[in-house]
Structures are given as C-alpha cells and as structure tokens.
Amino acid sequence: MTDAQIVHQTFTEVQQEALAEINGALAVWIDSVRMMRTLDKDFAKELATCRSAAEAIESCSRWTEHRLDSLFALQCRMLEIWLTCASRTALDVSVPTINGRHRSDPQTDNPANHHSPLPAKPLTAA
C-alpha cells in the first residue's frame, strides 16, 4: 500500500468516526428537544389549572428550574461529544504523509511548529 493510499484510508476512517459522532450528537439534541417539548406541554397544563398568582409563580419557578437544568445537561453532553471528536482528530496516529514524513517526527511534534487559531494572549476590553 502506498503512502497516499494509507493517508486516504486513514482520512476515510477518521471521517466516518466524525460522522458517527455527529449523528450521535444529533440524536442527543433531538431527544432533548422532545423532552423540552413535553416539559413545556406539562407546564402549560399546570399553568392553566392555577387558581392564584402564587400558584402560577411557583409553577413558573419549577418550569424555569427544570428548563435550565435540561439546557445545562444538554450543553454538557454536547461539549463532551465535541471534545471527544476534537481529541480524536488531534491524536498522533503515526500515519505517513504523502511526502513520506511521519506525524511522529520530532520536528512535526514540536509544539513550536504548531499554529493555533487562538490568540497567544487573552483578549481584553480596552
């Protein structure tokens, strides 16, 4: 197998894993939307049966708490999925590149040779 074929095969495998992660994230998101819709329906029924402002406020408080908990849990899960996907693409798999160099070469593993899209210093307000 040539270097180019190995690179292509590895790229294809990484792409398939990434698509599987994206599909998993989509399924998590759809489930959370369904759960929130059910929560909203239950809240509407409960709010319609309130007999006083105090009951309505209590119902709104409970709904808000559940909704925020649900959103937080969803955000944590999506972040976990994203970090897993990002870490897989950043792994050193020692695959030869087209020019015959390996990712495990000391020169390419040197962090000084990597260019981050993030600024070197945190941005601050002027």
Number of helices: 3
Class by helix and strand content?
A: mainly alpha
Total strands: the figure is: 0
Catalogue the unreliable spans.
92-96, 101-106, 114-123
Quote the distance from N terminus to C terminus: 56 Å
H/E element order = HHH
Strand content is: under 5%
Largest sheet: number of strands, sense, barrel closure: none
Specify the overall morphology: rod-shaped
Based on CA atoms alone, the radius of gyration comes out at: 24 Å
How helix-rich are the residues, as a percent range? Answer: 55-70%
Q: Any overview of this molecule?
A:
By secondary structure, the protein is mainly alpha-helical. The protein has a domain at 20-89. Helix content is 70%, strand content 0%. It has 3 helices and no strands. The protein starts with a helix and ends in a 17-residue tail after the last helix. Residues 92-96, 101-106 and 114-123 have low confidence and may be disordered.
